[in-house]
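Lab notebook, bench 4. Still working through the backlog of constructs that have no structural model yet. Next entry is a single chain of 237 residues. Request: give me the structure tokens for it.
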Amino acid sequence: MKKLLTSVAFAAALFTGATAAQAAPVLTLSITDSTATLGQCTTIGGAFSAGTCTLSSGSGVITVSSTYGSAMLDFLAGNSAPFRPEPELWLNHLVLFGSAGTQIIKLIATGYTSPFGNFNAKLLPGATTGPNASATIDYYYSAANLADPTTGTALHTVSIGPSDVSGTPFITPLIHNAGDEYSQAWVLTATSLAAGATVGGALEVVSAPTPTPLALLGLGLAALALVSRRKLGQSAI
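Model written out:
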């Protein structure tokens, strides 16, 4: 019995395992609006080029609360992994348009690492549109840690019409080699037909390792140990 419990403890340690120290991924948030100006980009601390304002951070958080183009933006973007080695990527967003137009908001995180191999990503593409607004949400992943994973094909796309809500979770398996770096991205395309239109919500991806044969063995041994303990307890009565 003692040997069995030792085996269970060893398997559980391999399943939950101590994870290697993980540096914060590099975040890049870009906002594209053909009516935007250099001054507006400077105000939010970004680099301006052809209507696109780009902000980068290695600290794990980017905040924007300012006017860009004809819209008032209120963004909070970041990554975190309080209980898992795979980071989460999220973007809380609110776009209030001052006139008709389109804004493309792209959040990229590069340099993610994981001690596990393949894992599942739970996508939470939450957004709410006003009467004169629509939106499209795309999620991208690059096992090669591309600086811009949006050059590939979106793994998941959600289209939201006027006065609509989206928040249905979607789980997709991702291919990954343990220890390699990877990147992922959210792209929100918000469109306004008139002044006062709004698009708001939260985009989030939560990752978790897929069960491996070793992990399943650990769970099986744990169940066997529990049954054995119950039998020992009954025989002692």
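Notes after review: The longest helix spans residues 213-235. Confidence is low (pLDDT under 50) at residues 1-21, 214-219. Flag for follow-up if needed.
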